[in-house]
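In response to reviewer comment 3 from the previous cycle, which asked for concrete evidence that the modeling workflow produces usable outputs, we include below a single protein chain processed end to end. The sequence was submitted unchanged, and the resulting structure tokens are shown without manual editing.
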Amino acid sequence: MLSRPKPGESEVDLLRFQSQFLAAGAAPAVQLVKKGNRGGGDANSDRPPLQDHRDVVMLDNLPDLPPALVPSPPKRARPSPGHCLPEDEDPEERLRRHDQHITAVLTKIIERDTSSVAVNLPVPSGVAFPAVFLRSRDTQGKSATSGKRSIFAQEIAARRIAEAKGPSVGEVVPNLGPPE
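The workflow returned the following structure tokens.
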């Protein structure tokens, strides 16, 4: 077997290796297989067709063929206590009795009377968008239940009341120093 070409070898060396290989007449390590045209006839009819080689695993306990699929027996519906299922009733007759043709369905449509319903058309205005509804802070802060408020809500309310009153007398300190 020939060695692989080394990184330092040139194209001349590769051609020399190829001519040595062909002169020796050794069998190639790989076999080139050309497939015929998909659309046309047999271009390579002199060669036998390729055979598919597959590994087959045989297990002793299992049969060679898979079991045939047999549908399960149909399940019978249990009748409700007030209604019994007739055994000898023809299914076509039962379907004919319950089935309604599309014309029967369409003739039973009853339209709702809309003559007394008031239609509210939009009021034309000079602005492009409708006016925005603003809620006041008083209605926004109150919850639906007028029960106890949380400690956090109580502290926030106390701070807002204190800010609204202004600073107390003790907090105001006169600045007696010269301005900077």
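The CA atoms of residues 154 and 160 lie 10 Å apart. We consider this sufficient to address the reviewer's concern, and the full set will be provided in the supplementary archive.
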